[in-house]
Protein backbone atom coordinates (compact mmCIF):
# COMPACT_ATOMS: atom_id res chain seq x y z
CA UNK A 1 0.00 0.00 0.00
CA UNK A 2 2.81 2.38 0.89
CA UNK A 3 4.47 1.72 -2.47
CA UNK A 4 1.15 2.25 -4.27
CA UNK A 5 0.56 5.57 -2.50
CA UNK A 6 4.11 6.71 -3.31
CA UNK A 7 3.65 5.73 -6.97
CA UNK A 8 0.36 7.60 -7.27
CA UNK A 9 1.89 10.69 -5.69
CA UNK A 10 4.89 10.53 -8.03
CA UNK A 11 2.63 10.14 -11.07
CA UNK A 12 0.53 13.12 -9.95
CA UNK A 13 3.66 15.20 -9.49
CA UNK A 14 4.95 14.28 -12.97
CA UNK A 15 1.60 15.13 -14.58
CA UNK A 16 1.44 18.46 -12.79
CA UNK A 17 5.00 19.28 -13.91
CA UNK A 18 4.16 18.32 -17.49
CA UNK A 19 1.07 20.51 -17.46
CA UNK A 20 3.14 23.46 -16.17
CA UNK A 21 5.72 22.91 -18.91
CA UNK A 22 3.01 22.78 -21.58
CA UNK A 23 1.42 25.96 -20.22
CA UNK A 24 4.75 27.78 -20.25
CA UNK A 25 5.44 26.59 -23.83
CA UNK A 26 2.02 27.82 -24.94
CA UNK A 27 2.65 31.22 -23.37
CA UNK A 28 6.06 31.48 -25.07
CA UNK A 29 4.52 30.51 -28.43
CA UNK A 30 1.82 33.15 -28.08
CA UNK A 31 4.44 35.75 -27.15
CA UNK A 32 6.62 34.81 -30.14
CA UNK A 33 3.67 34.99 -32.54
CA UNK A 34 2.73 38.40 -31.14
CA UNK A 35 6.29 39.72 -31.61
CA UNK A 36 6.44 38.38 -35.18
CA UNK A 37 3.06 39.93 -35.99
CA UNK A 38 4.20 43.29 -34.62
CA UNK A 39 7.41 43.11 -36.66
CA UNK A 40 5.44 42.34 -39.81
CA UNK A 41 3.13 45.26 -39.11
CA UNK A 42 6.09 47.60 -38.63
CA UNK A 43 7.71 46.36 -41.87
CA UNK A 44 4.45 46.86 -43.75
CA UNK A 45 4.14 50.38 -42.36
CA UNK A 46 7.71 51.16 -43.47
CA UNK A 47 7.00 49.79 -46.95
CA UNK A 48 3.87 51.87 -47.22
CA UNK A 49 5.87 54.93 -46.16
CA UNK A 50 8.46 54.23 -48.85
CA UNK A 51 5.79 53.67 -51.49
CA UNK A 52 4.01 56.81 -50.49
CA UNK A 53 7.28 58.81 -50.66
CA UNK A 54 7.98 61.54 -53.16
CA UNK A 55 7.90 60.31 -56.80
CA UNK A 56 11.07 60.29 -58.87
CA UNK A 57 9.89 62.90 -61.36
CA UNK A 58 9.10 65.26 -58.50
CA UNK A 59 12.62 64.82 -57.14
CA UNK A 60 14.13 65.49 -60.58
CA UNK A 61 11.96 68.58 -61.00
CA UNK A 62 13.01 69.87 -57.59
CA UNK A 63 16.69 69.35 -58.33
CA UNK A 64 16.25 71.03 -61.71
CA UNK A 65 14.83 74.13 -60.06
CA UNK A 66 17.49 74.12 -57.35
CA UNK A 67 20.23 73.94 -59.97
CA UNK A 68 18.97 77.11 -61.61
CA UNK A 69 16.92 77.29 -64.80
CA UNK A 70 19.56 79.48 -66.43
CA UNK A 71 22.05 76.61 -66.45
CA UNK A 72 19.85 73.54 -66.36
CA UNK A 73 17.53 74.56 -69.22
CA UNK A 74 20.27 74.71 -71.91
CA UNK A 75 21.63 71.33 -70.77
CA UNK A 76 18.12 69.83 -70.96
CA UNK A 77 17.64 71.40 -74.40
CA UNK A 78 20.90 69.90 -75.67
CA UNK A 79 19.85 66.50 -74.32
CA UNK A 80 16.46 66.66 -76.05
CA UNK A 81 17.90 67.82 -79.38
CA UNK A 82 20.66 65.22 -79.24
CA UNK A 83 18.18 62.44 -78.51
CA UNK A 84 15.95 63.61 -81.37
CA UNK A 85 18.84 63.47 -83.85
CA UNK A 86 20.02 60.12 -82.46
CA UNK A 87 16.57 58.52 -82.69
CA UNK A 88 16.15 59.78 -86.26
CA UNK A 89 19.55 58.31 -87.20
CA UNK A 90 18.75 54.99 -85.56
CA UNK A 91 15.46 54.72 -87.46
CA UNK A 92 17.20 55.62 -90.74
CA UNK A 93 19.99 53.09 -90.21
CA UNK A 94 17.58 50.33 -89.20
CA UNK A 95 15.55 51.01 -92.35
CA UNK A 96 18.78 50.84 -94.36
CA UNK A 97 19.76 47.47 -92.92
CA UNK A 98 18.73 44.63 -95.23
CA UNK A 99 19.69 41.03 -95.84
CA UNK A 100 22.67 41.64 -98.13
CA UNK A 101 23.14 38.00 -99.11
CA UNK A 102 19.51 37.71 -100.17
CA UNK A 103 19.74 40.91 -102.22
CA UNK A 104 22.91 39.76 -103.97
CA UNK A 105 21.27 36.43 -104.79
CA UNK A 106 18.25 38.18 -106.34
CA UNK A 107 20.43 40.54 -108.39
CA UNK A 108 22.63 37.71 -109.61
CA UNK A 109 19.65 35.59 -110.59
CA UNK A 110 18.01 38.45 -112.46
CA UNK A 111 21.31 39.36 -114.15
CA UNK A 112 21.99 35.83 -115.36
CA UNK A 113 18.43 35.10 -116.46
CA UNK A 114 17.10 38.40 -117.81
CA UNK A 115 20.03 40.78 -118.11
CA UNK A 116 21.17 44.10 -116.67
CA UNK A 117 17.76 45.81 -116.87
CA UNK A 118 16.12 43.14 -114.75
CA UNK A 119 18.92 43.39 -112.17
CA UNK A 120 18.45 47.18 -112.08
CA UNK A 121 14.74 46.69 -111.49
CA UNK A 122 15.46 44.46 -108.52
CA UNK A 123 17.74 47.15 -107.05
CA UNK A 124 15.16 49.85 -107.75
CA UNK A 125 12.55 47.94 -105.74
CA UNK A 126 14.90 47.29 -102.82
CA UNK A 127 15.82 49.66 -100.00
CA UNK A 128 19.16 50.36 -98.40
CA UNK A 129 22.53 51.75 -99.50
CA UNK A 130 23.68 48.44 -100.98
CA UNK A 131 20.79 48.41 -103.43
CA UNK A 132 21.50 52.03 -104.38
CA UNK A 133 25.16 51.26 -105.04
CA UNK A 134 24.22 48.24 -107.13
CA UNK A 135 21.82 50.35 -109.16
CA UNK A 136 24.48 52.99 -109.88
CA UNK A 137 26.99 50.33 -110.89
CA UNK A 138 24.59 48.42 -113.13
CA UNK A 139 23.41 51.61 -114.83
CA UNK A 140 26.98 52.24 -116.02
CA UNK A 141 27.68 48.72 -117.20
CA UNK A 142 27.64 49.79 -120.84
CA UNK A 143 30.55 52.19 -120.22
CA UNK A 144 32.93 49.49 -119.07
CA UNK A 145 33.92 47.80 -115.84
CA UNK A 146 36.40 50.54 -114.95
CA UNK A 147 33.61 53.09 -114.96
CA UNK A 148 31.46 50.73 -112.91
CA UNK A 149 34.17 50.43 -110.25
CA UNK A 150 34.60 54.20 -110.05
CA UNK A 151 30.85 54.75 -109.84
CA UNK A 152 30.48 52.17 -107.10
CA UNK A 153 33.32 53.70 -105.08
CA UNK A 154 32.05 57.26 -105.52
CA UNK A 155 28.45 56.45 -104.69
CA UNK A 156 29.61 54.41 -101.70
CA UNK A 157 31.19 57.57 -100.31
CA UNK A 158 27.92 59.43 -100.93
CA UNK A 159 25.93 56.80 -99.06
CA UNK A 160 28.40 56.88 -96.17
CA UNK A 161 27.98 60.65 -95.97
CA UNK A 162 24.20 60.27 -95.88
CA UNK A 163 24.46 57.79 -93.04
CA UNK A 164 26.69 60.12 -91.02
CA UNK A 165 24.34 63.08 -91.37
CA UNK A 166 23.58 64.62 -87.99
CA UNK A 167 26.44 62.98 -86.10
CA UNK A 168 28.25 66.33 -85.92
CA UNK A 169 25.35 67.78 -83.95
CA UNK A 170 25.39 64.89 -81.50
CA UNK A 171 29.12 65.39 -80.99
CA UNK A 172 28.51 69.10 -80.39
CA UNK A 173 25.84 68.41 -77.76
CA UNK A 174 28.10 65.84 -76.07
CA UNK A 175 30.84 68.46 -75.79
CA UNK A 176 28.65 71.42 -74.77
CA UNK A 177 26.61 69.69 -72.05
CA UNK A 178 29.47 69.09 -69.58
CA UNK A 179 31.01 72.46 -70.50
CA UNK A 180 27.84 74.23 -69.43
CA UNK A 181 27.78 72.10 -66.29
CA UNK A 182 31.34 73.11 -65.41
CA UNK A 183 30.54 76.73 -66.16
CA UNK A 184 27.63 76.53 -63.74
CA UNK A 185 30.05 75.04 -61.22
CA UNK A 186 32.40 77.99 -61.56
CA UNK A 187 29.56 80.50 -61.29
CA UNK A 188 28.20 78.72 -58.20
CA UNK A 189 31.57 78.81 -56.49
CA UNK A 190 31.98 82.50 -57.35
CA UNK A 191 28.58 83.19 -55.80
CA UNK A 192 29.62 81.28 -52.69
CA UNK A 193 32.79 83.31 -52.25
CA UNK A 194 30.89 86.55 -52.91
CA UNK A 195 28.51 85.62 -50.09
CA UNK A 196 31.44 84.90 -47.78
CA UNK A 197 33.06 88.21 -48.67
CA UNK A 198 29.86 90.16 -48.09
CA UNK A 199 29.22 88.50 -44.73
CA UNK A 200 32.82 88.69 -43.60
CA UNK A 201 32.57 85.24 -42.09
CA UNK A 202 32.78 81.66 -43.32
CA UNK A 203 29.41 80.08 -42.61
CA UNK A 204 28.21 76.71 -43.96
CA UNK A 205 24.81 78.25 -44.68
CA UNK A 206 26.34 80.92 -46.90
CA UNK A 207 28.50 78.47 -48.85
CA UNK A 208 25.94 75.66 -49.20
CA UNK A 209 23.76 77.41 -51.78
CA UNK A 210 26.54 78.15 -54.25
CA UNK A 211 28.14 74.75 -53.89
CA UNK A 212 24.76 73.04 -54.38
CA UNK A 213 24.19 74.88 -57.65
CA UNK A 214 27.71 73.98 -58.74
CA UNK A 215 27.26 70.27 -58.08
CA UNK A 216 23.79 70.03 -59.63
CA UNK A 217 24.79 71.73 -62.89
CA UNK A 218 27.88 69.55 -63.19
CA UNK A 219 25.83 66.42 -62.55
CA UNK A 220 23.22 67.40 -65.14
CA UNK A 221 25.86 68.12 -67.78
CA UNK A 222 27.63 64.82 -67.20
CA UNK A 223 24.37 62.82 -67.30
CA UNK A 224 23.36 64.43 -70.61
CA UNK A 225 26.81 63.78 -72.10
CA UNK A 226 26.84 60.13 -70.99
CA UNK A 227 23.38 59.43 -72.46
CA UNK A 228 24.24 61.05 -75.79
CA UNK A 229 27.61 59.29 -75.91
CA UNK A 230 25.92 55.90 -75.62
CA UNK A 231 23.58 56.71 -78.51
CA UNK A 232 26.48 58.10 -80.57
CA UNK A 233 28.58 54.96 -80.16
CA UNK A 234 25.64 52.76 -81.12
CA UNK A 235 25.04 54.81 -84.28
CA UNK A 236 28.73 54.68 -85.23
CA UNK A 237 28.76 50.91 -84.81
CA UNK A 238 25.70 50.59 -87.07
CA UNK A 239 27.36 52.77 -89.70
CA UNK A 240 30.54 50.70 -89.57
CA UNK A 241 28.52 47.52 -90.09
CA UNK A 242 26.73 49.01 -93.10
CA UNK A 243 29.99 50.32 -94.60
CA UNK A 244 31.58 46.88 -94.39
CA UNK A 245 28.51 45.37 -96.05
CA UNK A 246 28.68 47.98 -98.82
CA UNK A 247 32.36 47.32 -99.51
CA UNK A 248 31.89 43.55 -99.66
CA UNK A 249 28.84 43.91 -101.88
CA UNK A 250 30.65 46.29 -104.24
CA UNK A 251 33.40 43.72 -104.80
CA UNK A 252 30.76 41.05 -105.39
CA UNK A 253 28.96 43.26 -107.92
CA UNK A 254 32.15 43.85 -109.93
CA UNK A 255 32.83 40.11 -109.93
CA UNK A 256 29.30 39.37 -111.13
CA UNK A 257 29.54 41.88 -113.96
CA UNK A 258 32.95 40.50 -114.93
CA UNK A 259 31.49 37.00 -115.21
CA UNK A 260 28.43 38.35 -117.04
CA UNK A 261 30.57 40.16 -119.61
CA UNK A 262 32.34 36.93 -120.52
CA UNK A 263 29.12 35.29 -121.66
Annotation keywords:
single chain, 2 domains, 9 helices, 89% helix
Q: Calculate the mean pLDDT score and round it.
A: 75
Structural class: mainly alpha
Helix content: over 70%
How many helices? The count is 9
The total domain count is 2
Overview of this protein structure:
With about 260 residues, the chain is mainly α. It has two domains: about 55 residues; about 200 residues, no CATH class. The protein is about 90% helix and about 0% strand. The chain has nine helices and no strands. The N and C termini lie far apart (about 130 Å).
Offer a quick outline of the entry.
The protein is about 90% helix and about 0% strand. The protein has two domains: about 55 residues; about 200 residues, no CATH class.
Write the layout of secondary structure elements.
Elements (H helix, E strand, L loop, with lengths): L1 H50 L4 H12 L1 H28 L3 H15 L1 H9 L4 H11 L5 H19 L3 H33 L4 H58 L2
Helix pairs in contact: 2-3, 2-9, 3-8, 3-9, 4-5, 4-9, 5-6, 6-7, 6-9, 7-9, 8-9
